[in-house]
# Entry
Amino acid sequence: MTAPLPNDEIRRRFEAHLDWVLSAGKSGARADFAGAVLDEVKLHGHTLSGARLAGARLRHAELRRAELGGADLAGADLTEAFLHNANLAGASLVRACLRAAELNGANLAGADLAGADLRGADLYRADLAGVNLAGADLREARGLTAEQVAKARIDAATRLPAGLADGRR
# Structure
């Protein structure tokens, strides 16, 4: 884990990333924050599609409506992050910590959350279609319904909230 980055460096990297996204990779640079400390960073509505954030620490980060489709967040710490209505479709969140994260209305379709810690996360209205929840811990997750679980891929190691564990496929 690296030291927290200065705000001007964060801003520079995100501006270069937006240019990279908008130019389809012809200019700018893909944001690489692997292992970075970004606690409480304010990225409401930012475009971070395809960004590298593996192992980053984003505790209490403000990511409402952020575009994180296809981003690499494997092993990232998103404890108590605000991800309301964020787009995480196709993102890698393998072994990520999303404890008590606010994922209300988030698009997680096709994301990989294998082994992720979602204890106490708010999943109300989150799109879990095709999400890999193999080995994920969803105990005490709030707003999670049987319909959402039915659209996701679970296995014997997936830990569901008490009321949903009985409907295991």
Observations:
- Helices lie at 7-22, 146-151, 162-165.
- Residues 7-22 form the longest helix (16 residues).
- Residues 79 and 99 are 5 Å apart (CA to CA).
